[in-house]
Design goal:
With about 270 residues, the chain is mainly α. The protein has helices spanning about 15-30, 40-55, 60-70, 75-85, 120-145, 150-215, 215-220, 240-265, and strands spanning about 35, 95-100, 110-115. The chain has eight helices and three strands, in the order αβαααββαααα. The longest helix is centred in the C-terminal third of the chain and has 64 residues, at about 150-215.
Length: about 270
């Protein structure tokens, strides 16, 4: 009788059944898919999915719990590293059972059990369809929103026209300012010419001043009239150096002494 039989015993004792499920779970974690009977696949699904849920949180406590069921440290390491990283976003249903037909020997129902996230053929098309639907649903309100805002954009463009018209006199004023700046150097040239003429006049006045003072200096210095052979020469025409004046004075005094000596002799 079947009274109190809540799960399939698989015609095995407790220890044998647990060891068989642990070995099948390690093979599934390592190879990501295995072939077995439908009854064993359903029993393995109930055994391995709680362990995958434990692997989402990598702690020492969870590793020890999983190791108590699997009894294989390499399987535990693979589960917490690769499988948990790929299954982390899935809230459940980590395995998939696909029926493969009947076995030739005893005609038993066969199936393939695999990890859902490691099957790229099944997941590729479904993920793309989901993304496309979400994008299309979000794209409709986005395209409808900017359509009423298109009208005020045209009004803003119309308001820009008078601003351009007002800018034209500014260009004329700028041109006039450039013309005024070009005309300014002419006035500067006249100022430069007047300053140059004033400097020329000052230089001529400075040159004329020493000419008027030159004749007075030698007249004040030479007070003794020198003796010249030709009376036509004057001190103004001949400039006498200081050494020559002293020599002339000495010669004049000698001549005077000779004359006085001759006069005394004649007497």
């Amino acid at each position: 009788m079947r009274h109190g039989k809540k799960f399939n015993h698989l015609s095995r004792q407790t220890g044998h059944r647990k060891s068989m499920l642990a070995n099948m779970a390690c093979s599934l974690i390592e190879h990501k898919r295995i072939n077995t009977t439908v009854a064993k696949a359903k029993a393995l699904k109930q055994f391995v999915e709680p362990l995958i849920t434990k692997s989402k949180e990598d702690t020492t406590h969870n590793r020890r719990i999983v190791f108590a069921y699997l009894r294989n440290k390499y399987g535990v390491t693979e589960l917490f590293r690769e499988v948990a990283a790929k299954v982390g976003d899935r809230p459940g249903g980590y395995t998939r059972i696909i029926k493969m037909g009947n076995r030739l020997g005893d005609n038993a129902d066969m199936a393939m059990i695999e990890l859902v996230d490691f099957n790229e053929l099944y997941n590729g098309g479904k993920k793309e369809e989901k993304k496309g639907r979400t994008r299309r649903a979000k794209a409709k309100p986005v395209t409808a929103a900017p359509t009423p805002k298109a009208a005020p954009v045209v009004e803003e463009v119309e308001e820009v026209a008078p601003i351009v018209e007002e800018a034209t006199p500014i260009v004329e004023e700028v041109v006039e300012a450039h013309v005024a700046e070009v005309e300014v150097p002419a006035a500067e040239e006249t100022v430069v010419d007047s300053s140059a003429s004033e400097q020329a006049e000052q230089t001529t006045a400075v040159e004329e001043a020493p000419v008027a003072e030159t004749p007075e200096a030698p007249a004040a210095e030479v007070e003794v009239p020198p003796v010249y052979d030709t009376p036509a020469e004057t001190p103004e025409a001949i400039e006498v150096p200081a050494d020559e004046t002293t020599a002339d004075d000495s010669s004049a005094s000698e001549q005077a002494d000779e004359q006085t000596s001759e006069e005394k002799k004649e007497e």
